[in-house]
Amino acid sequence: MKISRFVQYKTVIICTGNICRSPMAEGLLGHMLTGALKEMISVQSAGTHAYDGLDAEPFAVRTLLDRDVDIRSHRSKRVDDTMLTDADLILAMEDAHLVHAQRMLPAAADRMHLLGEFDTQQSGEEVPDPYGGTLETYQQCAQMISAYLEGVIDHLQKTIGGNQG
User: Fold this and answer.
1) For position 162, what pLDDT does the model report?
2) Over the stretch 82-107, which tens digit does the pLDDT of each residue have?
3) What contacts 24+ positions apart, CB below 8 Å, involve 64-72?
4) Which class for 122: exposed (0-12), middle (13-18), buried (19 or more C-beta within 10 A)?
5) Three-state secondary structure readout of 88-148
6) pLDDT tens-digit series, residues 119-156
7) Percent helix, strand and coil across the chain, each rounded to 5?
8) pTM for the complete prediction?
9) Is residue 12 predicted with pLDDT exceeding 50?
10) Strands annotated E in 19-92
């Protein structure tokens, strides 16, 4: 599917509480997108069991600030049918999140993927939850997410036809 340069391509990233992994992935992807792709792609995150309005975890914020990505304004939200219906690409951190989204909206299952499916090393692992861990745990999580997002960007370039320049 090729997308016109001016059409907004919507990406939703989901985890459990929307305070660690998915806000980090949202911030990282938004930061990694450049050129035409940055103009054409909107990125949002949500949680399967999120409480609306919570801040991102302090270690998640600190980890991304060290990468020049600011997620201090992030507020958690629960994934809903509208987000899934409107999304062109839905990325889940774990198989359980994928199953949850598929049960919510079976018609969108073809647009849902485990983030690890985009791993250029072909490991396809789930992204482990850093919640309650050390700063180093969050840094390792962000590194894994960032590596997987490289594959997502390659996929987006092929799907949308935009470039990263």
Assistant:
1) 60
2) 999 999 999 999 999 999 999 999 99
3) 64/24, 64/27, 64/28, 64/142, 66/139, 67/28, 67/31, 67/142, 67/146, 68/31, 69/27, 69/28, 69/30, 69/31, 70/27, 71/23, 71/24, 71/26, 71/27
4) exposed
5) CEEEECCHHHHHHHHHHCHHHHHHEEEHHHHCCCCCCCCCCCCCCCCHHHHHHHHHHHHHH
6) 987 777 999 999 999 999 999 999 999 999 999 999 99
7) 45, 15, 40
8) 0.93
9) yes
10) 41-47, 89-92
- Please provide the size of the chain in residues: 165
> What does the alpha-carbon distance between residue 73 and residue 118 come to, in Å, rounded to a whole number?
27
Q: Which amino acid is at 95?
A: D
